[in-house]
TrEMBL record:
Positions of the Reverse transcriptase domain: 1-139
Species assigned in the record: Plakobranchus ocellatus
PANTHER family in alphabetical order: REVERSE TRANSCRIPTASE DOMAIN-CONTAINING PROTEIN, RIBONUCLEASE H
A Pfam family of this chain: RVT_1
Stated name of the protein: Retrovirus-related pol polyprotein line-1
Domain of life: Eukaryota
InterPro entries xrefs: DNA/RNA_pol_sf, RT_dom
Length: 139
């Protein structure tokens, strides 16, 4: 990852050390529970979390560039991102499936996953009938 985004090795080592051997403890009815290791995910509330999410997202979404999206003023718009949300944009169901397949593949290559249960699909159309939105995800 650092070579793809020109991240200095020293900076990367600092980030890795911040996330190394993380544990979490919860409190139930005032009683602290045993520490449990955190095996994945960025820290909730950590000031670096949005930046880390954006770094990984950038690598993944750069691979969508050859796929056609939605043209606005001659520019190809494929995705929108805000915080930890990503919107994939396409002109057809086939294109959205291709985008989704690429994102899933790139996530797997980087050892990442996303919550398929949180995925939504919205169709905007001038047609009087309401087109169906179907996609297949193996996530």
């Amino acid at each position: 990852m650092p070579k793809k985004l020109d991240i200095d090795e020293k900076d990367l080592r600092i980030i890795r050390n911040l996330y190394l051997d993380q544990t979490v403890s919860s409190r139930i009815e005032g009683e602290h529970q045993d520490l449990k290791p955190i095996k994945r995910a960025v820290r909730q509330g950590c000031v670096m979390s949005p930046d880390l999410f954006n770094l990984y997202s950038e690598i993944i979404l750069r691979n969508l560039d050859p796929i056609s999206g939605f043209k606005i003023n001659g520019e190809n718009l494929i995705n929108l991102r805000y915080a930890d949300n990503t919107v994939l944009i396409a002109e057809s169901g086939e294109q959205i499936q291709e985008l989704l397949d690429t994102v899933i593949l790139e996530n797997e290559r980087m050892g990442l996953s996303f919550n398929v249960k949180k995925m939504e699909c919205m169709v905007i159309s001038k047609k009087s009938s309401n087109p169906k939105c179907n996609f297949v995800s193996k996530g």
